[in-house]
Amino acid sequence: MSKQSVTVIGLGPMGQAMVGAFLAAGHRVTVWNRTASKADELVAKGAVLAPTVADALAANELIVLSLTDYEAMYTILEPAAASLSGKVIANLSSDTPDKARAAAEWAAGHGARHLTGGVQCPPSGIGQEGSITFYSGPKEAVDAHAETLKVLTDIDFRGEDAGLAALYYQIQMDMFWTAMLSWLHALAVADANGITAEEFLPYAQSTMSSLPNFMAFYAGRIDKGEHPGDVDKLAMGVASVEHIVHTAENAGIDPSLPAAVLDVFKRGMTAGHAGDSFTSLIEVFKKSAS
Length: 290
Ligand code: NDP
Known about the structure:
single chain, alpha/beta, N-(1-d-carboxylethyl)-l-norvaline Dehydrogenase, domain 2, 53% helix, elongated
C-alpha cells in the first residue's frame, strides 16, 4: 500500500526536520512557507512547493502545521479557509491550552478537525526513536493518521479536550525553563569562583538526576494534600535558600532567581507551614492564582 501523502505548512527548523523525516520514510510531501526560499533544499529532495496556501490545503487531507504560534496559523489559513473543509489539521505549533481550544472550534467551524500537538523533542529528535509528541482532540482522527504521524515521533494521546496536549507541553516547559535557569544561575556563581561549566557538569548532572526520586516520593503525598514535616521542614528550607542567596551575593552574582524562591518559602512560613514539608508551598502557589 502506498504511503499517505501529507502537507506541511511552516518550514522553520522543526518543519524542515518534519518534511525531511516524511521524505525519508517515502511519503509524498507538499509544503508551503511564508518565506518560500526555505523550501529550496526540501524541493531538491523531492518535496512539492505549493504556489498558494489553498493549493497546499487542496493537495492532502492531513495538514501538519509547524508555526511559531497559533496567531501565525490564523494569518496563513484564514484567507484560504474555504479550502479547509474535510481536512485534519495536526497543529504541532506550541501555544496555550485556551488558544488550542479556540483553534479546535475555529477549525470545526470550517469543517476541519484540529489535532493539538506538543512536540517533546528538538528538531534533531524528529524521526528518532524515543521522541514523543502529546496529542489531543478527536481520537478517531489521531488513530486514522497515526501511522503517518508516527514517522515524526511516537504519539502520546492525552485526551479529547483540545487543550490537553498544549497543557502537558506547557507544564513540561514550566519545569524545563525553571530547571535550566537554575543551572545557569549555579554556573554564574561557579564561574565567579573560577569553576567552569565542564568542571561542574558531573555534579550538575548528579543533582538533576536525583530529582525523579524526590518527585516519586512526594507525588502521592501532594495528591492527597498531605505535607508532613517528617522528612524536611520548610523552616530548614528557608535557611538553606538564604544561604544560596548570600553565596550568590558574595560572588557578585545577581541573586534574583534564588531570591524569588526565597520569597515563596517566606510566604509559606507566613501562611503557617514552618513545620510542614517544602511541598506545602504548592498551597502558596494555588492561593496566589485565586
Ligand atoms: P520557528 O519559530 O523558527 O518557525 C517559524 C515558522 O513559522 C516559519 O515557517 C515561519 O515562517 C512561520 N511563521 C511565523 N510567524 C508567521 C507569520 N506571522 N506568518 C506566516 N508564517 C509565520 O519555530 P521552529 O521551527 O523552531 O518551531 C516550530 C514550532 O515547534 C514552534 O511552535 C515551537 O515552539 C515548537 N517546538 C520547537 C522546538 C525546537 O526545538 N525548535 C521544540 C519543540 C517544539 P518564515 O520562515 O517565513 O519566517
